[in-house]
Specification:
By secondary structure, this protein is an all-beta fold. 2% of the residues lie in helices and 42% in strands. The relative contact order is 0.14.
């Protein structure tokens, strides 16, 4: 799955609590612990290569480290089909690869999700967090990015006429529609790490098309959002 580029963008809409999250493309995300994921939150998986080649036309990128950890790279060789190859960064410094016909691009696979706790060693800390399962070397590993994130909701701008612009936004697109997504709206519900004395949260929150009811507890909450362009899904003009 990590190297399967047929579905570079995958979505789990409003995780319902099954033991293994399953994407719209029927992909079971077995590297995740379903019991640790906050219910009714979205998960998104993105698979791509690095934006810059590690070895471009036989020339290593500036600052390439001599790492001996196995990693996956997309190999592009003139006259051959692209293929994945597992090797070490130090191998790219080998003079045998210093040919203008060969390039290597590092594989990147990430799953973003909301976890019920922050510190994996303290599963009872009850601090919801935005976490990421990511390809590191030759294996998937988990780490958290931001504490206090209670919910993530996504809406995708679907291009229905192939002009590169979204014609409609959907929070629960079909798998085929997701193939034509060109933008994404991301909504995060943030919560203070600690309760605020004397405060009662009686608000409801709009995360795009999803309404999150008030909890009447003492945490302070805010919604932040942004819209991003899925740049590799839009054909270049001209």
């Amino acid at each position: 799955w990590v190297l399967d580029g047929r579905h570079p963008l995958e979505l789990v809409n409003d995780y319902a609590g099954q033991s293994v999250p399953v994407s719209l493309h029927a992909t079971p995300l077995t590297c995740l612990d379903g019991a640790a994921i906050v219910l009714d939150t979205d998960l998104i998986a993105v698979k791509r290569t690095a934006g810059e080649a590690s070895l471009f036309r036989g020339v290593p990128v500036a600052g390439l480290t001599a790492s001996t950890i196995d990693s996956w790279y997309l190999r592009l060789v003139s006259g051959e089909r692209p293929a994945w190859e597992k090797l070490r960064a130090i191998d790219l410094l080998d003079d045998a690869r210093a040919m203008p016909s060969i390039s290597y691009w590092e594989a990147i696979s990430r799953i973003l999700f909301i976890r019920k706790f922050s510190d994996s060693g303290l599963e009872g800390d009850d601090i919801p967090s935005l976490c990421m399962e990511t390809l590191a070397g030759n294996a998937m590993t988990s780490r958290c990015l931001v504490e206090g994130v209670e919910n993530m909701q996504l809406e995708f701008g679907i291009d229905t006429d192939a002009d590169g612009a979204p014609n409609q936004y959907k929070s629960a697109p079909e798998a085929e529609e997701l193939q034509h997504a060109v933008t994404a709206k991301i909504y995060l519900l943030l919560r203070s790490i600690n309760e605020i004395s004397g405060h009662e949260d009686d608000k409801t929150y709009m995360l795009g098309q999803k309404i999150v009811a008030s909890t009447h507890d003492s945490y302070l909450r805010r919604v932040i959002s942004t819209t991003v362009v899925l740049r590799n899904r839009i054909a270049p003009i001209g």
